[in-house]
Amino acid sequence: MKQNTMLIGVLALLLIVAYVVLQKPGEQSLSEEGTGKLVEIDSLKVDRIEIKSLSLDLILEKKGAEWFTQRPISYRADQNNVANVLHQAKNLEVKSIVSSNPEKHPMFTVDSSGTIVKISEAGSERAAFVVGKPSANYSDTYVRMMNSNDVALVGGAFGYMFNRALREWRDKNITVMPQETIREIKYQYGDTTFTLAFRDSVWMIGRDSTDLSSVQSILRNLSTVAADDFVDSTLTPQPRISAQISYGGVVLRFAFSKAMGKYYVQSSASPQWFVLETWRAEQLLKRKKELVKPRS
To answer: Quick one: DSSP state of residue 283?
Structure first.
């Protein structure tokens, strides 16, 4: 009986030790109930967003109905990503306060190593907070208001939304046009050219019939051409154009970079050079034999 009692005592002690070990010190809640929204903003009135992290110092500004990056570069922003950030900021729901000790801010990455977000309406700062690390189960995120020592546990794993690379904040679209407006596509590879044209309700290349599924794939891909990255430095020497596609009043120029194993792409609508992964470029760069319907 004494041995059984001792074993039960040891087991209870081990359970207590395991519980303590599994609990991350300092990450327990001080408050058990949610305290409402973290910030109060009107997403329709927001006209400036500042995001600063160890890897990026970004300013987004609204001009008319559209958003643009203003720092570190001036460029049209990815409208969807900005809208997602505003929606997320507006709906930050505090689940609990886990610490009010400023010495513990580094533990939650809500000190200078976190991501500082400032949101302004009509030129006046409306909210400022620091996005920290995710919770232990990665379903929530630690956040601290800039003027407070309180570290809040906020519902959702949203840190990535505020920590995108610069290229993800910029509009990657090289060209966008309705698919149904494309009625002629001219390909040029050096001295070799051919034209895919919609005539009498069918797509033809000269007198050759075309494979409809291949043409439909080309039309889908050409209606929205999005880049993988941007080239913001001067390309020296100028890239050698190896192919051109002309359609809908736009000319896309392609130059293959052996060093990168990718394509440089430029549209006649802008001096900006873009980078396109090879597999993506090959969805656009088709040869005549790939489009012509095989003769039976």
So the answer is: T
Q: Which CATH class is domain 173-291?
A: mainly beta
* Cα-based distances in Å from 196 to 54, 86, 96, 189: 49, 43, 62, 14
The whole-model pTM stands at 0.83
Radius of gyration of the chain (CA): 28
Measured distance CA(26)–CA(239) in Å, rounded? 56
In this predicted model, what pLDDT tens digit does every residue of 140-174 receive, in sequence order? 999 999 999 999 999 999 999 999 999 999 999 99
Q: Which of 177, 161, 176, 175 is nearest to 60 (CA)?
A: 161
pLDDT digits (tens, 9 = 90+) for 169-196: 999 999 999 999 999 999 999 999 999 9
The predicted structure's pLDDT at residue 8: 52
Q: Tell me, what's the pLDDT at 236?
A: 78
> Longest Cα pair distance anywhere in the chain, in angstroms?
99
Check if the beta carbon of residue 247 is closer than 8 Å to that of residue 194.
no
Contact 252, 225 (CB under 8 A): yes
* Strand, helix or coil for residue 10: helix
Domains of the chain by residue range: 29-169, 173-291
- DSSP string covering 138-175: SSEEEEEETT--PEEEEES--HHHHS--HHHHB--EEE
Pull the structure tokens for residue 80. Answer: 């969807």
